[in-house]
Write the structure tokens for this entry.
Amino acid sequence: AQTVTQSQPEMSVQEAETVTLSCTYDTSESDYYLFWYKQPPSRQMILVIRQEAYKQQNATENRFSVNFQKAAKSFSLKISDSQLGDAAMYFCAYRSAVGIQGGSEKLVFGKGTKLTVNP
Amino acid sequence: DSGVTQTPKHLITATGQRVTLRCSPRSGDLSVYWYQQSLDQGLQFLIQYYNGEERAKGNILERFSAQQFPDLHSELNLSSLELGDSALYFCASSVETGGVSGANVLTFGAGSRLTVL
């Protein structure tokens, strides 16, 4: 079974600075997808960014980018120019690639990193 | 608004009771997933339905059951409730093709907060 580990229960960053959240995963599969979700105090789970394992290029979404190291099974999230609204729990998630035989697109989540942004 | 609707938002009940949580997926999404989020366990996958059929089962207790109806809405039934069942229950939906998929995104509802006293 796949597992996702987020080793930083809490992180803090100054407004306008850059912060990197760590995520490692364990899998024997070669094709899969990785995601970062954000959960603000409203509790809503919001997709931040996604990465296909077969793509070597790291995904980027505005101020959010990832460092995907497939051999090391590492998938870190970098937030640039941090804003107060970035304060939230951040969850890393893994999903198997569904083949022709079908399967589940369920996500396996890490336990999360609580990010505080200081003004 | 994510397009995934969960009711009720909050629910307080007593041990031993039974509750039903309801989820309406985004229009066009055939798959519904249920997750439990508690303080010490993170987000745990419970069960998935695809177009009315059970597709995958995770760490779902025997006291819990779910189903997906022909109109694609889903219900999660929790019975013989215990204090430890207090948690946030999320429903998510996705466009799952049943074949080779792309990076289909799970869209989450706002959750149902269950408190068992």
Q: What stands out?
A: Chain A touches chain B at residues 33, 35, 37, 42-47, 50, 52, 91, 95, 97-100, 102-112 (CB under 8 Å). The radius of gyration of chain A is 14 Å.
